[in-house]
Amino acid sequence: MSEQTLDGLIARVKSEAIEASENEAKQIIDDAKQKAQQLLSNAETEKETLLANAKVQAEALVEKGKIALNQASRDVQISVKNDIQKLFKLALEANIKDAFTSDLYSSIITQVTNSLGSNVAIALPADTEDQVLKSIQKKVATSQTIPEIIKKEQLLSGLSVTKTDEGWSYDITAEEIASLLSQQLSQKWIEFLNTK
What is 100-194's CATH number, 2.60.40.10, 3.30.2320.30, 3.30.70.100, 3.30.420.10? Predict the structure, then answer.
């Protein structure tokens, strides 16, 4: 084999090796580009999925917050309404308690005894002054039947009427009257409190 042929063969082998290496390098670069493109595409898809999930979770959190805020608002409205009704009832009780004068007691006792007849016992609060009690007894002495009038420790305001021969009793107290009045007026208060 001649030297020229050997040089030609070496050049050809070299050329084929370089060409094969270049082809292989090109294939590796193409594969790397394709993988990089795939990774970018996957990352973009994952980013969009994460953003979509985050948006859904944020919207759900905002909705829960709105619901909690609405509930808290309703709770505060109910609490304020109940507090106002309690204050109103306490004010009514205080005013009604002050309205129980000896004249009012006498008028009520006279009407009760005239309606119920005999065997009636009337109890007044224990803190009723003796002079008020005597004044009441003097005023009802002219009624058709004279009731027994006593003081009762458990009674804080108003009076208690007992029909002794029938065994029943009824309390006419500031608390009872205020409760009845507040029940009648509560719808007006609800309308007032619900106006914005």
Answer: 3.30.2320.30
